[in-house]
Amino acid sequence: MSHVVDERIGELLLGAAQRGSCYVPSGDDAERIRRALSRRVADGAVLSPGRGLFVDTEAWDSLKPAQRALWVARGLQTLHPDWVFCGPTAALAHGIDVSDALIADTHVAVPALRGGSNAGPLVRHPVLESCEPGGGIEEAGGLRVTPPLQTVFDCLRWTDFPHGLGVIDSALRVGAVCGDELAEHAERMAPRRRGARRALAALAWADPRSENGGESIARGRMLLLGYVRPELQVEVPRVIERGEPYRADFCWVRADGLVILGELDGRLKYTEEEMMGGRDLGEVLSDENVRGSRFSLYDVSLMRFGFPVTERPAEFAAILDEYGVPKRGGPLALPEGTPMVPDWEALRRNRR
Length: 352
What we know:
Elements: H1 3-18, H2 30-43, E1 46-50, E2 53-56, H3 57-61, H4 65-79, E3 84-85, H5 87-93, E4 106-111, E5 122-128, E6 138-140, E7 143-145, H6 148-158, H7 161-173, H8 179-189, H9 196-204, H10 213-224, E8 231-236, E9 246-253, E10 259-265, H11 273-276, H12 281-295, E11 300-306, H13 313-322, H14 344-347
Parallel strand pairs: 4-5, 10-11
Antiparallel strand pairs: 1-2, 3-4, 6-7, 8-9, 9-10
Helix pairs in contact: 5-6, 6-7, 6-8, 6-9, 7-9, 7-10, 8-9
């Protein structure tokens, strides 16, 4: 490969990367560039995440799963300007957090009468109807997508309850949808769209206070196991430093007065720069230890668990039972009242 062609390919890949997209060869020299890129794919310097899509390997390796999904979708949009993306792919474009488990495939909307195909990494859904309430086509994140209302509704009816909570919690948190409008939309679509009742059930348990998808999914798995809905992001006063209060991910106040705080230990808080706040790993771990020790100034039970254990129902239930997390008496589909918030002054340990 000549130096000129090599330099040209580097520029093309970089330009696409700056647009947050895979590169799609076009123009008079498209075939020549495509052959050159294919040779680079064989050498490992370039990757092809999909037919006709190319990306620099080093750039691709630096991306998170959500970013990769959007790069692929934008590349496909270049190849197919008339395509409309829906479901989890559209949710990403609207700025909604979506679990990595839901974005391995690219979701494309097709006319309702055409039918769909669920084979391979490209999934077609027959959801486009010009007369559908909340329907239409919007542009977001460089893609033609279904509107937020339809997008979230589709996500909730296509996925399971815990992952659906991750989507709706985020959508409410960022203001992409209004809960009442989504409920009305789901009710209208119930006779025509399979899974509408599942969407309504997830919406009934949604809570925008959940800080991330991991916490939402963990909460969903607690609820499926029959445990009481926890209060979220409960503020715990700082007794010593007198600064901003700490916050606990989950909190239960039992009828006998026992307070249980739950902390989800996610990997990201120890690896992602934005989560670490400029601190190194040692500082993050030290701060977490201090934070946990400050909780012990109150008469509470502190339960810490990692996300992987939530994927093992029997083990997760054993942990929740051991710490005394209470169970519900009613069915999952019926939302409960607002949980109690601890009386921190009364729970303060007398150490003098």
